[in-house]
Amino acid sequence: MAEEDMDIDIDxxxxxxxxxxxxxxxxxxxxxxxxxxxxxxxxxxxGVLLIVLLEVLSQKSVGRYNKKPRIHAQKMENLEKxxxxxxxxxxxxxxxxxxxxxxxxxxxxxxxxxxxLILHYQISMGFNIDDDDDGPKRSGKQALLEYIxxxxxxxxxxxxxxxxxxxxxxxxxxxxxxxxLCPEADTMDPNNALQNAxxxxxLAEDWLGIPQVLGPEDMTNPYxxxxxxxxxxxxxxxATLKSGAPVDETQIIKSKPLSKDxxxxxxxxxxxxxxxLIVDGQSIVNHESSIDQLNTARLDGKGLExxxxxxxxxxxxxxxxxxxxxxxxxxxxxxxxxPVKYSVVKVDNNHFQVHFSPESAGVYKANILIxxxxxxxxxxxxxxxxxxxxxxxxxxxxxxxxxxxxxSYFDSLIPVVLVFSLILLVGGMDHSYKPL
Length: 436
Prior knowledge:
Helix content: 25-40%
Order of helices and strands: HHHHHHHHHHEEEEEHEEEEEEEEEHH
Number of helices: 13
Strand content: 15-25%
Strand order of the largest sheet: 2-10-11-8-6
Largest sheet: 5 strands, mixed
Number of strands: 14
Structural class: alpha+beta
Shape: elongated
């Protein structure tokens, strides 16, 4: 009897977590329409809020419906309309749920419906998984797990329940997604589970825009609901770091390679330490060059001062006494400009060339590093000009006649200029100007 009571309590815990998480997720979607649900068993009963939810998620109109249903038939009509929209228009397969289940407040089936929407619109679409594809494919769960395992391989994540209970995994994920945002992740005490999760999830909410649809107290619950955990974690792949975030000295090299040449470095995460360079979590260089030796490195080339849009601009990097090493560049683009495409080509052990091609005009900053250390104290400011726009204004078809007229005008001036030049030549034989 005691075992049965414990099973009921465990079952109740994960169900309560799921209901709370799915309610919060629903309200995150509905807030753009300034409406919310309080109780999933009753608030979808007339179909209105469910229709609003589907229109937000799909960015499509469900069509005309009764916005103030009063009788049972009107509520059923709304619900049948939205369920038909889900299956016929959106191609989402629903199992064992009908309009009557929602009107009657069948919580289990309503939670199943919400999960189906989360799986389709947030997880499957987030990982470009086609629900209609009949061929072999990854499940949303598998895709999300692979993403997390790639982000934090050292945490050896294998599930969406117990592996997250001590709060250190979510902290590691926050720091992996935005290096330096949660540097405490590696030193957290697993025994302080709630404190770890609360701290990391607050950082994720404040600086990555990941809402706490799952609470820290639920993440650290030994009976946390798997689907709730997936709902929360599936927001990480699309999250971006907000401006002004309190990141550490970790650097993210955002630029992408210009070509497939050797010595190209793409999207590297570089952590500066005294004796080694850590790239994407792995130590790849053990260098013994002191800062004094590093200071002997120098930069040269026309690309340091001026660059041109769409052209191959070059910066020469001479490592000299700093010795051989990995050269990388951290570009800061003007607001609104796309990331700079660049490549690093090794000329010899002490000479590298950075080839870069900005896509828009403006002042760029370039911080060039050897083995993770900046060569110069401050980044170089590089004025970039769109030479095509400056020297070759666009010619519209209706302006061709004017251009041809201008060319004829300049052509007609040539004889006059020649005659005037002869007059000056003859008159200048006595080396003095004589007014007429």
